[in-house]
Design goal:
This is Sorting nexin 17. The protein is of the alpha+beta class. The chain contains two helices and three strands; from the N terminus they run βββαα. The protein starts with a strand and ends with a helix.
Length: about 90
């Protein structure tokens, strides 16, 4: 199973604010669009289940609005994180 995050989208929230959505593809097909906070929540759940020493490092949260270059850097980091989680899980089997 191959996870990728080939692109991002700027979307509008309920209160009119904007946020970055990460388009997650599984085996080349769009599976879902998620916010950073949702992936962070998933990371926290994985840590609880498997322990901190087994889970790859998660890209840090930023306080200020991200520039386009920072969004791209975070996209790349999140993609590597998702791939590392899958590899870690497969190696445990």
């Amino acid at each position: 199973m191959h996870f990728s995050i080939p692109e991002t989208e700027v979307r509008s929230g309920e209160n009119g604010s904007t946020y970055v959505a990460y388009n997650i593809h599984v085996n080349g097909v769009l599976h879902c669009r998620v916010r950073y906070s949702q992936l962070l929540g998933l990371h926290e759940q994985i840590k609880k289940e498997y322990g901190s020493n087994v889970v790859p490092a998660f890209p840090p949260k930023k306080i200020f609005t991200l520039t386009p270059a920072e969004v791209e850097q975070r996209r790349e980091q999140l993609e590597k994180y998702m791939q590392a989680v899958v590899l870690t899980h497969l190696m445990e089997k």
